[in-house]
């Protein structure tokens, strides 16, 4: 009977004073020695910026923005679509595209399988047609939880197809970026996606298409240096990291200390890389306003 009680206790996680942990208590741990601050797993989340612990339900209501410090936590593509698109108004495209490990890179095939299992996605972007405040749009939404949002052949191909579909259907295009950069396991095939997506965007924009790029935390490397930076309008979430090379690489290269807010959305806005920084709670209405304006319906 006592053993049963211990088994039940293993469903609980402890919160060390410095660090959040979801690890269950170890078998040999005595119940009376456990820290008192025990909470059921999944019930709470800790802000990685300020350390405040939030009830998961409250955090969801707050669109995963920390109510203490305003940190915009990372969302996966599905959460982002649900938050942005009118209810029931999204049709996914190219859902079956998967990478084939084109270079037979050691360990890549296994890693891909792991990423699929962990994220529930087939690659780091979801594309499709949807509606925002009643406006039909093409969407591409990246997901950092798949391979750190890295751009390989599938991300590049899906984004290019979304751009071309927006062009053919005469629709505005909205892309939410988040990425660590190119997917090194696909080497040059990954880097080629920068040119491919940029060329497709150039054709679309020459044909008069409107492309709104939304930068979310973090957007770095090959994604920032291609389609993320090519928006007619570029919006970022507060605090989002947006740049090409990382801070350490740049500091070592130029041998200078960079400001604390270097590469944040606010720093980029100040230096002319962004058009606006928009809080997550206002993002959908901001996109709706821009689409109103673009289609001649708006009066703002
Ligand atoms: Zn916080």
Automatic annotation (TrEMBL):
Pathway: Lipid metabolism; malonyl-CoA biosynthesis; malonyl-CoA from acetyl-CoA: step 1/1. InterPro entries: AcCoA_carboxyl_beta (IPR034733), Acetyl_CoA_COase_Trfase_b_su (IPR000438), ClpP/crotonase-like_dom_sf (IPR029045), COA_CT_N (IPR011762), Znf-ACC (IPR041010). Residues 1-39 are annotated as: Disordered. Component of the acetyl coenzyme A carboxylase (ACC) complex. Biotin carboxylase (BC) catalyzes the carboxylation of biotin on its carrier protein (BCCP) and then the CO(2) group is transferred by the transcarboxylase to acetyl-CoA to form malonyl-CoA. Gene3D superfamilies: 2-enoyl-CoA Hydratase, Chain A, domain 1. Zn(2+) binds at residues 47, 50, 66, 69. GO terms for molecular function: acetyl-CoA carboxylase activity; transferase activity. The lineage of its organism: Bacteria, Bacillati, Bacillota, Bacilli, Bacillales. Its EC number is 2.1.3.15. This is Acetyl-coenzyme A carboxylase carboxyl transferase subunit beta. The keyword Nuclease does not apply. Belongs to the AccD/PCCB family. It is an enzyme of class 2 (transferase). Acetyl-CoA carboxylase is a heterohexamer composed of biotin carboxyl carrier protein (AccB), biotin carboxylase (AccC) and two subunits each of ACCase subunit alpha (AccA) and ACCase subunit beta (AccD). PANTHER family: ACETYL-COENZYME A CARBOXYLASE CARBOXYL TRANSFERASE SUBUNIT BETA, CHLOROPLASTIC (PTHR42995:SF5). A zinc finger (C4-type) spans 47-69. Its cofactor is Zn(2+).
């Amino acid at each position: 009977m006592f053993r049963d009680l211990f088994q039940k206790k293993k469903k609980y996680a402890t919160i060390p004073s410095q660090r959040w942990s979801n690890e269950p208590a170890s078998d040999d741990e005595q119940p009376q020695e456990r820290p008192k601050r025990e909470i059921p797993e999944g019930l709470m989340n800790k802000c990685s910026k300020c350390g405040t612990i939030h009830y998961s339900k409250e955090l969801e209501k707050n669109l995963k923005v920390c109510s203490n410090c305003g940190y915009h936590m990372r969302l996966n593509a599905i959460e982002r679509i649900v938050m942005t698109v009118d209810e029931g108004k999204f049709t996914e495209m190219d859902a079956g595209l998967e990478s084939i490990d084109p270079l037979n890179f050691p360990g890549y095939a296994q890693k891909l399988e792991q990423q699929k299992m962990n994220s529930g996605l087939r690659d780091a972007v979801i594309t499709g047609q949807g509606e925002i405040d009643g406006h039909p749009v093409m969407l591409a939404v990246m997901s950092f939880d798949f391979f750190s949002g890295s751009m390989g052949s599938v991300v590049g191909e899906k984004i290019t197809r979304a751009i071309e579909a927006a062009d053919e259907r005469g629709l505005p295009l909205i892309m939410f970026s988040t990425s660590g950069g190119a997917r090194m396991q696909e080497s040059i095939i990954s880097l080629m996606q920068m040119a491919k997506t940029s060329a497709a965007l150039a054709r679309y924009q020459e044909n008069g298409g409107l492309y709104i790029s939304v930068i979310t935390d973090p957007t770095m490397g090959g994604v920032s240096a291609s389609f993320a930076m090519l928006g007619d309008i570029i919006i970022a979430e507060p605090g989002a990291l947006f740049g090409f090379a990382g801070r350490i690489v740049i500091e070592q290269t130029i041998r200078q200390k960079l400001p604390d807010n270097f590469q944040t959305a606010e720093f980029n806005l100040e230096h002319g890389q962004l058009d606006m920084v928009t809080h997550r709670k206002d993002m959908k209405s901001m996109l709706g306003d821009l689409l109103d304006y673009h289609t001649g319906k708006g009066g703002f």
